[in-house]
């Protein structure tokens, strides 16, 4: 029994140590890395002599990070201890917190693998702990939600795997991989280099097909309309920590993979399909926001708002401007801090008031002032209030969008009104409007229980996230500078050439 | 009571070190312009302190009595800003330069992909968004207004908020949000780029939202807060689009880049009016939302749900001026005599029309309001519209090359902004004083009587129909309110008179000499002047003259020192602005050759001349008609309807007794027939704009949201569910062949073998 209780101490100690490690790496204390001069294709902390994993087909253990993946890694290592903290009192904590550690490993694996095979393995591995988190610690309908989550995203990933395999069979022979049976390799660095110099797949039709297969896999993960419906179900049923990681990091895997694999390997296809990207982005953004307005379940609303914000990432990429790319990258990061805060708020609300219906509980400001404060801050961050992290990304994407698409920017801009409307409506019905200054309107699900504020550990977790939302809103350049430098290099090296080629051949 | 109040002065000791901070910084060698950072940082740093300490020490004895639940801390932070602001303004005026620009800090660095005609390249010249402090006459004036009023109103709020039981244990929230708002206002005024202006603009919007919803349990307050945020958000989105367009034109949003030469954009390309004008119109939509102009005006009256100090500060004196400030910033764009872009006359005309229509509409709605704060809210809307009218005329005149007249009316408009902010801040505080005392008197009355019979539930401390005769009970408040009203009405030689006269005269000049389209707003402006005289006098008469109309009104006490001090200070400012103008040549102080307050040559002689003896006969007629309407016609009608002597034995202060006596000397007229007409009914319903918007939203957004939620659950997810069901059924179907019976398996094996045989035969033959 005592050992069971100490497991969570070990888990949070371990994950905090990892967080400290990544922070020190970022600060330059470990590794002395100059983050501002990393281009696309240069990796730091790269494995020097990749180890063979499956020699016959050319799979190696090859890791590295750059300005695209590092903020995500830092975010992962940050969110793990915080989500542990928020659910410090989880039932069967020993297995709960251990699953979160497995999750951490899988997520970091996705961001650091430079071997597409290993990348895919980690990609699918993330499903396993999340599946169990939802299945065991989820809400009433957890069975259905966990199955749907698993099968839906798995199916899409399989299509992506087909794309990866086609790419694999088109890789050129490389002296390092001479010993393999097929003569091909999964090495992402070599593939990217090959695609930059010669193009990875010569046939244009096949290239487009592979690009679309990859898009299906990544867009489902993001998720983008119309392949988004697994997300609300999964979020509503998932435990708080699960939701925080799902929204905070797992969704970003889609955007990360899209940039690293689809855009980098097939710039021409990306340019060809820019209208599709804009359509998907707009659809997610506008439609997601309108659907949010019609939700009555708090977690469902927050989940759809994630869909809506992920749309902005596609829009940022579609601008093909360094500013838009950097905005998309910063959106991945900012949403990675804000949306866990939103889910922590929703989770704590459910924890104390046993309901998620908007409007069933009124006057949180009176009974749970700290919860109300966190909610206010999170909601404001998500609706893009200046000096909070989300605004930086939003304004960067908007400026870039205007530069490329002109008046179309009115659509995302007007969506901001809807975003504000659903957030404000939900606050009005939850924090405010209790009719009486000294007592709120309590939901039936309380069954006479005394309303109370959030517990210390929930409060601490949300406090850290809220403080970071403010910190990165006021000082965005902490991560922005490296993202901006990387975006410039990426576009310069991979996309400008393709753009000029496309222009030359009408 | 008095002794206890005297002891409360001790609470102000923390202000002494706070006030000393700025001089120490200055002596330590900080450039005066960089003190702007201190002005912004002080309230920003104090915000979390007040909020968190207040939450943790909630109800603590020391926190309540010594710190006034954070009020004293907030006041100290604001005193830092006040001293910094004054220091900066005085240094700026002393230096005699046109503008001061601190070294900007880089915020976001990025590159731009561009097409150079033959191919795509990335412009390696680093572009960035930075933050710095910018001070020119316009921002210097607003900085003074903002720091001065934030300080005074915070002072007032300590007296107003902490004496009401319902606020206890919540006041830390009030003061924290109050100083966060102040930070936003100082930041907006001092920011050196349009983007930062927008950032602080939104922070103010957030604080406005939070403070309107301060009484969060009230449904009306929660709804009003949401309405205010949403309505201004609509404007803000357009403002943001305008910023994007400006960015695209100039490649930067910094004032120093944009205003250096507004006629050349990025890469020295000439700027076309057809591109710039839509951008400026987009910015103007944002201003319309923030400054509550038609058609985005609906939020301001509802915003009165907030505590009265909030109405005084945010919804009268500072935040609503943000829109005016941004419009005033547009002048360099149109200044054809000075690097401006030609061909943007329409901008000024549109702004002038919006101003004229709003001024008239708001004044007419103010006629029928009985809530003292609502009258002031509509009055605010109407006066802000005057300023828009003046700015619109200025933009028009400057863009058509009439720089002298244009700058004159620009100066008049900005001077009206100053006068209005001072007078309206004071009027709201005075109304707060009245409400506060009415509320307490009613409370005490209720307490004393303790009778079981029906207590009047309908009593509303803000309703003027329950007031009357307060002139004898509240001398300071009544004088303050009289002076404020005079300034707003434009009684000759007091505050707002000078500026309003300048706006009206120059708009008429523009209308008669250059552009007939300006005639509409010009006529509306003159009519509104008379209406202003009526509704402001009506408010004063209903409140202070006549006999008490409710028991509570005869039991009010005088105000506390916390409340009196700012009233007296602002009374002096309002009463002496005209004199300052005359004797100290404030115009010369505030003038500068470029977009200064524009008070070039704005000396008293010129001011008097424009008011009383303009060059043109027509303008003279307009000027005198305005004076007659606003000074005599409006107030006299108001006195005839609502005036009256005080009750027997009550004496008003000498400064106002003449007015009370005058109001009682007119023959009364009865307007009850008019009050029940359909016109006044629809005015009471605010001309049905709110109903129209509510109806529009309920017919569009609500069904759309419901449909989308249904569509997502039943069509998009329905397809997914269909796939699920089909595959489950498919597996059931397949499973049904797994019967477990040997006979079936043999049959299946036979069929399989046969089909393989057929296939082989088919392939080989």
Give the topology.
The complex is a heterodimer of chains A (506) and B (765).
Chain A: H1 2-27, E1 51-54, E2 59-61, H2 70-86, H3 93-112, H4 116-125, H5 127-137, H6 142-169, H7 188-197, H8 204-221, H9 230-237, H10 240-265, H11 267-272, H12 274-293, H13 298-318, H14 322-353, H15 364-367, H16 369-382, H17 389-405, H18 410-430, H19 456-474, H20 477-504
Antiparallel strand pairs in A: 1-2
Helix pairs in contact in A: 1-2, 1-3, 2-3, 2-10, 2-14, 2-19, 3-4, 3-5, 3-10, 4-6, 5-6, 6-8, 6-9, 8-10, 9-13, 10-13, 10-14, 12-13, 12-18, 13-14, 13-17, 13-18, 14-16, 14-17, 14-19, 14-20, 16-18, 16-19, 17-19
Chain B: H1 2-8, H2 15-27, H3 35-56, H4 61-65, H5 71-95, E1 100-101, E2 105-115, E3 120-131, E4 134-135, H6 137-161, H7 171-190, H8 194-212, H9 219-250, H10 255-258, H11 273-290, H12 299-302, H13 308-317, H14 322-328, H15 331-334, H16 345-366, H17 372-399, H18 403-449, H19 475-489, H20 496-513, H21 519-544, H22 561-583, H23 586-590, H24 604-612, H25 617-642, H26 654-665, H27 672-675, H28 678-684, H29 689-699, H30 701-735, H31 742-764
Antiparallel strand pairs in B: 1-4, 2-3
Helix pairs in contact in B: 2-5, 3-5, 3-7, 5-6, 5-7, 6-7, 6-13, 6-18, 6-22, 7-8, 8-9, 8-13, 9-11, 11-14, 13-17, 13-18, 16-17, 16-21, 17-18, 17-20, 17-21, 18-19, 18-20, 18-22, 19-21, 19-22, 20-21, 20-24, 20-25, 21-25
């Amino acid at each position: 029994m005592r050992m069971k209780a100490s497991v969570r101490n070990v888990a949070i100690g371990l994950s905090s140590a990892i967080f400290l490690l990544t922070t020190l790496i970022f600060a330059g204390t470990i590794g002395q890395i100059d983050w501002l001069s990393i281009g696309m294709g240069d990796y730091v902390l790269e494995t020097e002599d990749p180890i063979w994993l499956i020699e016959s087909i050319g799979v190696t253990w090859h890791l590295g990070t750059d300005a695209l993946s590092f903020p995500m890694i830092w975010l992962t290592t940050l969110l793990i201890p915080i989500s542990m903290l928020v659910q410090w009192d989880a039932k069967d904590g020993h297995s709960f917190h251990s699953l979160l550690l497995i999750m951490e490993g899988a997520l970091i694996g996705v961001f650091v693998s430079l071997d597409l095979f290993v990348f895919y393995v980690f990609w699918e591995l993330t499903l396993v702990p999340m599946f169990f988190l939802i299945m065991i610690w989820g809400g009433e309908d957890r069975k259905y939600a966990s199955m749907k989550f698993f099968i839906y995203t798995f199916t899409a990933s399989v299509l992506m795997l087909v794309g990866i395999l086609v790419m694999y069979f088109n890789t050129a022979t490389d002296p390092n991989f001479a010993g393999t049976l097929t003569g091909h390799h999964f090495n992402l660095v070599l593939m990217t280099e090959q695609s930059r110099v010669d193009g990875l797949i010569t046939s244009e039709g096949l290239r487009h097909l592979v690009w679309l297969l990859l898009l299906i896999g990544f867009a489902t993960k993001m998720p983008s309309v119309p392949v988004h419906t697994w997300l609300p179900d999964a979020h509503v049923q998932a435990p708080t920590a699960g939701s925080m990681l799902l929204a905070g990091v797992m969704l970003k895997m889609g955007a990360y993979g899209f940039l690293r694999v689809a855009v980098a390997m097939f710039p021409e296809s990306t340019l060809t399909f820019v209208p599709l990207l804009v359509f998907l982005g707009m659809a997610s953004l506008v439609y997601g926001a309108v659907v949010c307005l019609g939700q009555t379940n708090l977690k469902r609303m927050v989940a759809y708002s994630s869909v809506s914000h992920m749309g902005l990432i596609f829009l940022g990429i579609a601008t093909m401007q360094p500013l838009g790319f950097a905005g998309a990258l910063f959106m991945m990061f900012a949403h990675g801090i804000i949306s866990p805060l939103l889910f922590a708020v929703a989770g704590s609300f459910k924890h104390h008031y046993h309901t998620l219906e908007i409007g069933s509980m009124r006057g949180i400001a009176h009974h749970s002032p700290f919860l109300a404060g966190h909610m206010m801050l999170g909601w404001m961050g998500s609706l893009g209030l200046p000096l909070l992290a989300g605004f930086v990304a939003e304004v960067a994407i908007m400026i870039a969008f205007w530069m490329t698409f002109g008046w179309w920017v009115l659509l995302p801009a007007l969506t901001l009104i809807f975003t504000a409307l659903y957030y404000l409506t939900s606050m009005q019905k939850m924090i405010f409007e209790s009719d009486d200054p000294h007592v709120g309107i309590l939901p039936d699900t309380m069954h006479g229980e005394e309303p109370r504020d959030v517990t210390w550990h929930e409060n601490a977790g949300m406090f850290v996230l809220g403080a970071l939302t403010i910190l990165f809103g006021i000082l965005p350049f902490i991560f922005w500078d490296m993202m901006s430098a990387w975006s410039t290099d990426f576009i310069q090296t991979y996309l400008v050439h393709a753009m000029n080629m496309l222009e030359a051949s009408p | 009571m008095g002794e206890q109040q005297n002891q409360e002065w001790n609470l102000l000791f923390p202000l002494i070190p706070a006030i000393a901070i700025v001089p120490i910084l200055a002596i330590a060698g900080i450039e005066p312009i960089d003190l702007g950072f201190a002005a912004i940082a002080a309230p920003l740093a104090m915000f979390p302190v007040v909020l968190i300490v207040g939450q943790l020490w909630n109800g603590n004895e020391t926190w309540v009595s010594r710190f006034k639940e954070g009020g004293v801390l907030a006041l100290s932070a604001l005193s830092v800003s006040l001293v910094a602001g004054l220091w900066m303004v005085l240094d700026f005026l002393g230096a005699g330069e046109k503008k001061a620009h601190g070294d900007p800090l880089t915020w976001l660095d990025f590159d731009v992909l561009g097409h150079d005609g033959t191919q795509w390249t990335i412009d390696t010249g680093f572009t960035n968004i930075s933050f710095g402090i910018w001070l020119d006459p316009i921002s210097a004036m607003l900085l003074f207004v903002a720091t001065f009023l934030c300080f005074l109103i915070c002072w007032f709020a300590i007296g107003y908020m902490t004496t009401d039981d319902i606020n206890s244990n919540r006041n830390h929230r009030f003061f924290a949000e109050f100083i966060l708002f102040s930070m936003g206002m100082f930041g907006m005024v001092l920011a050196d780029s349009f983007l930062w202006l927008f950032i602080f603009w939104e922070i103010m919007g957030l604080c406005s939202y939070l403070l309107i919803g301060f009484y969060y349990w009230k449904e009306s307050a929660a709804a009003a807060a949401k309405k205010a945020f949403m309505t201004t958000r609509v404007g803000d989105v357009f403002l943001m689009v305008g910023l994007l367009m400006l960015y695209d034109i100039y490649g930067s949003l910094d004032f120093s880049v944009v205003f250096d030469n507004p006629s050349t954009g990025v890469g020295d390309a000439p700027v076309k009016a057809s591109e710039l004008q839509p951008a400026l119109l987009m910015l103007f939509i944002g201003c319309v939302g923030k400054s509550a102009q038609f058609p985005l005006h609906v939020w301001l009256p509802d915003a009165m749900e907030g505590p009265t100090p909030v109405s005084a500060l945010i919804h009268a004196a500072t935040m609503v001026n943000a829109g005016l400030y941004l419009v005033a910033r547009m002048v360099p764009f149109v200044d054809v005599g000075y690097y401006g872009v030609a061909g943007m006359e329409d901008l000024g005309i549109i702004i002038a029309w919006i101003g004229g229509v709003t001024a008239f509409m708001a004044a007419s709605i103010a006629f029928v309001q009985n809530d003292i704060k609502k009258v002031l809210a509509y009055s605010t809307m109407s006066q802000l519209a005057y300023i828009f009218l003046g700015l619109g005329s200025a933009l028009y005149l400057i863009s058509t090359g009439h720089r002298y007249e244009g700058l004159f009316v620009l100066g008049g408009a900005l001077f009206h902004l100053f006068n209005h902010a001072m007078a309206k801040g004071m009027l709201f505080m005075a109304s707060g004083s009245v409400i506060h005392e009415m509320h307490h008197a009613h409370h005490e009355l209720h307490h004393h009587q303790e009778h079981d019979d029906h207590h009047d539930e309908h009593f509303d401390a803000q309703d003027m129909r329950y007031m009357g005769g307060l002139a004898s009970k509240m001398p300071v408040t009544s004088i303050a309110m009289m002076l404020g009203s005079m300034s707003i009405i434009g009684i000759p030689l007091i505050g707002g008179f000078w500026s309003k006269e300048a706006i009206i005269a120059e708009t008429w000049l523009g209308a008669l000499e250059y552009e007939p389209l300006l005639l509409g707003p010009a006529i509306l402006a003159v009519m509104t002047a008379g209406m202003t005289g009526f509704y402001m006098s009506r408010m004063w008469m209903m409140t202070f003259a006549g006999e008490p109309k409710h028991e509570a009104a005869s039991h009010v006490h005088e105000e506390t020192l916390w409340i009196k001090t700012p009233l007296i200070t602002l009374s002096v400012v309002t009463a002496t602005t005209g004199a300052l103008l005359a004797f100290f040549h404030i115009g010369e102080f505030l003038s500068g050759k470029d977009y200064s307050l524009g008070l070039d040559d704005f000396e008293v002689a010129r001011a008097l001349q424009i008011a009383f003896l303009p060059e043109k006969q027509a303008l003279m007629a307009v000027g005198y008609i305005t004076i007659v309407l606003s000074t005599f016609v409006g107030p006299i009608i108001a006195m005839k309807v609502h005036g009256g002597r005080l009750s027997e034995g009550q004496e008003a202060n000498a400064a106002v007794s003449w007015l009370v006596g005058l109001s009682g000397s007119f023959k009364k007229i009865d307007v009850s027939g008019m009050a029940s007409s359909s016109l006044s009914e629809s005015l009471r319903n605010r001309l049905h704009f709110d109903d129209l918007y509510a109806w529009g939203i309920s017919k569009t957004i609500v069904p759309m949201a419901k449909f989308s939620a249904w569509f997502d659950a039943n069509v998009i997810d329905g397809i997914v569910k269909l796939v699920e069901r089909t595959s489950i059924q498919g597996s059931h179907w397949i499973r049904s062949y797994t019967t477990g019976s040997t006979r079936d398996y043999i049959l299946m094996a036979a069929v399989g073998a046969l089909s393989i045989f057929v296939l082989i035969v088919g392939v080989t033959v």
